[in-house]
Amino acid sequence: MSDVEREPAELHCGASDRDQHAPKVDVLSARDVPLGGPRAMTVRRTLPQRARTLIGAWCFVDHYGPDDVTDTGGMDVAPHPHTGLQTVSWLFSGEIEHRDSMGSHALVRPGELNLMTGGYGISHSEVSTTRTTILHGVQLWVALPEEHRHTGRDFQHYVPSPVRVDGAEVRVFLGTLAGGTSPVRTFTPLLGAEIILEPCSTTTLAIDTGFEYGLLVDHGEVCIAGTILRPAELGYLGTGSDTLTLANETDNDARVVLLGGTPFEEQIVMWWNFIGRSHEDIVEAREAWQSASDRFGKVDGYDGDRLPAPALPNATIAPRKNPTRP
Q1: Rounded CA gap, 131 and 147, in Å?
Q2: pTM of the model
Q3: CB within 8 A of 225, min separation 6: which ones?
Q4: Does the structure show a pLDDT above 60 at 19?
Q5: C-beta separation of 144 from 120 below 8 A
Q6: How many angstroms from the chain centroid is the CA of residue 24?
């Protein structure tokens, strides 16, 4: 296929191609994945994949919507378990009802963080409310380090205030950026922020040189270090940069989610909703869920059965870490 535009626009896009010091950006494309349950909603998943397992301790990035729930049915994820991770829910539009085995009953709303810790074991359900017309957001997971992966259940809610910088509005839901700091507890150094870029704007942010970063584009086209990122693409940058420049050269707003953290050096095993360190960890967690043990507790108030665990693969599930970057 060829570009048939007679006079295609030139994109200057951040760093010049001649700038040998510009950081390298790896572009990770999304794949469509049906969310669990009989009324599965399709999401776009950019992490994990073969090219990259983690960005910092971020190990899972699902991006969904905007979905008209009258057509798609919205979100209805029955009670299901988690181990060895924290879940981060962040919405752009719509509303989701969260229930968990701690007894938490909360609503996920746009611009409000819900973070659930499932160390040794927790279970929860997620259902879009009847007030929702358009459902749109991200669901993210954070791997817990070995010393904390059996920590107790927890649930935190936080509403970050928007921070204005030149050409952008920033909401920091985890970590620190652009003068905004989240009080929410994590177990490794992390950053999570929604950034809305004004039309025809360039924004430069001071960042931590010890962090690696992932930039997920929700809508618009954004230039970073000489690379154009389009909707649903995730751009990866390694450590070593002290600033990050984002350029929106279009006539409309662009929205991105910036994720970052110190490199997570531990190997992990991810299968279904469990994170462990060995195949045996996964087998034990699955058996505990299937036998309705106290490890995951019970979710009250959901109208329906809980999700059964899928069958284990015939092969041993091997630990994995990020491939070596050339």
Answers
A1: 41
A2: 0.92
A3: 14, 15, 22, 23, 24, 25, 237, 245
A4: no
A5: no
A6: 21
